[in-house]
Protein 1
Amino acid sequence: MFEVNTAVLLVVSLIGLVVIGVHIAIALGMTSALGIWLVTGADMNAFHTVQTMLAATAYEAIRAYVFAVIPLFMLMGEFIGKSGTVTDVYRGINRLLKRIPGRLAIATVMGNALFSFVTGVSIASAAAFSRIAYPEMKRFGYHKGFALGAIAGSSCLGMLIPPSVLMIVWGILTEQSIGQIFAAGVFPGLLLASLFIVYVFIRAILNPDLVGGGAGADIEVEEVEEVPTGQFMVSLAGIILVIVAVLGGIWFGFFTPTEGAGAGAFIGLMLGIIKGMRFKDIVESILSVGKTSAPILLLLVTAALYSRTLAMTGMANAIESVFLGSGMEPWMIITVMVLIWFALGMIIDSISIMLLTAAIFAPIAVKMGFDPIAFAVIGIIAIEAGLYTPPFGLLVYTVKSAIQAFEPDMNVMTIFKSSTPYWIIMLIGMMLIINFPEIATWLPKKLFPS
């Protein structure tokens, strides 16, 4: 009974701290300290135990080799983004799709899919394509909401198509192979990208006004800025080189994920230098990644302490018993998990959601018979879909912030509304993977035979 009461107290405390606005890292640390203090006797001697565990956890987490994979992959994406390669590839794809209805929105989806292979951060994709794609679509007469919906909706591919920061964090938290999770995201990511393209194409056919094809359109296709063929080919070849070298190296055993991330960062640096990056740009990229990755690493330290507290207090076992002893069917339990992810997506970011739930939900799913790799993809899609959920969808606000210079009066609810079809498509994709887990597991099984 003591363990159950402690578990309930810790859950309520953690949720309460998050709701009142305490930073998730501090909330995790405070909750963990409270749990350790209660379990070890709730007296003055317990404070020493709390300090010892915090110090040991922090030291072990920071020195772990695998944690370097996060800033290195982010640095790779930053170098490639700063080099202008993304803009070149987007405009090149745009030219190749010249005769297709809704080509700019389709090019945005395809560009986001390619960019996802080299960045792994959906917020970075949203910010980049808001500045690259939206001015082009605006010039061509696209409906503003439809254009922004395509940007916000397809940016989620950054967290699903490897290398993905969410995949790395999930692998660390659940002690699963990061390489296998990377492989598991490829087909689901391409599936979602394909469904997004089909949706854009159908909308463009049914309502040409959305894509500047109505009677009032007065801008010609030729006026949209294009990139020279040679420049496009160099940029595309650079991205393909990164994909083949990094992901191929990881999947075929030439690199560990951390070594692959280091190789990717080096290739990204070389590509940036070839494309004209200056020393100042390189330094700015490194500092930018440091500012972004440091809070993530701090979160992972407190998450490691939180996981230890779960084990000590029996909280994970208590929550597991509630789910498995409820008598609900597996699909009903998965539905509850997804709803929890959506609810958390309204108030906190995706990595924080994963830190709170992955270590608890993943073992439950495995005991219900779900493949752990397929469940990782399901969880990542659900968590990412939560970033479109009003009132605080982080991806939507990223797009709103990025287009401030172009559309200072844009209503954020317009972007939420235009992103809803992509949110629905993500649910469809998630349901397909739940019912046909081979979509996610086929490639990992081929690349990593047991």
Protein 2
Amino acid sequence: MNAVATKTRRRSAAFTVFLKEVRENLRDRRTLLSAFFTGPLLGPLLFVMLVNVQINQQLDKADKPLHVPVIGAQYAPHLVDALEEGGIVPDAPVADPGTAVRKQDADVVLRIGAGYGKAWRQGEPVQVEMFYDSSRQDTSSAVERVQKLVEAYARQQGAMRLVARGLSPGTAWPVQVAKRDQATPQSRAVLLFAMLPYFFVITLFMGGMYLAIDLTAGERERQSLEPLFANPVARWKILFGKLAAICLFSLASLAITLLAFAVVGHLIPAEKLGMELDLGWRFAGIVLLLMLPLVLLLASLQTLVAAFAKSYREAQTYVSLLMMVPLIPSALLAFLPIKAQAWMYAVPLLGQNLGIMRQLRGDGVGAAQLGLCLAGTLAAAAVAIGITVQMYRSERLAISG
């Protein structure tokens, strides 16, 4: 009977470790805040608030009269009248337009030269200078608005000059470009949510990070596994129990984030920008499926990296550096014009990024793409788990002290 009981205890060792770690970390406020509040709830709320502020600022500038200092307005009264009809309010001229823009005293400044009137009467080209700062994203709509009004006035006056000479206005534009934008309202939402895949990966990371650190370096410092296992237990069972606990917390964190985005996504006025945003249950289900193998991979990598540390603080440093790795595929897709190839879906992290972006654009994820993503990440997770198991079996890593 004793032998049977011992064998049963050994078989359930991994599950025992899993229950122990889940129970203990549910009492840890630091772990709960990191896994279930800081990233999953606070992150989406801040994200939506910032997007709303940015959208409302741009819409306010587009609808309200725009105050623009105009230098030399007396030289081009007809141009100034056309700007006023377009919602531009000419303000008093400034002494130094470049300084006014750099100091953010004005979004854009127009300067009309003294020779404008003479050149205009002689039918010669005239020049209007527009001062702005392209590094300020909040002024882009104002600059574009003023530029379009000036160009529209120039085209109108050019056409009138041709008509006065008995020529067709089309003579000046023998080739016209007909724009056919193939973007759908849903695909345009990618412009606002290009970093959303990285946010999901970081949520997974944060959900299990403190748990992974606590179950390696933390256990080593506290010597807390000795009283639990008086009988010899295979180290891989202890490891699997720990990994299961980390995966549970990571998945719970991701589920809370997806639920939060599904709710707060309705608060984003995307339709005002001609966009359509769908972060509902179908989107959440595809993201959760894509992320499942990544949960195992990140949990094993966090455990492996943290196991090298001799103290809790040292483990925090190592795992924090590991957090920079998921940024690479998101940065590549955000800043480089990469055309997705089939093999890319088999690359961990990159495949998840591509799949989430396709789902966000409304293109959907095909069965072949989904299979490659799951297979590639699961293979990487198996390798990472194998390396971690070998490390836990090594004599130099004392799990129980």
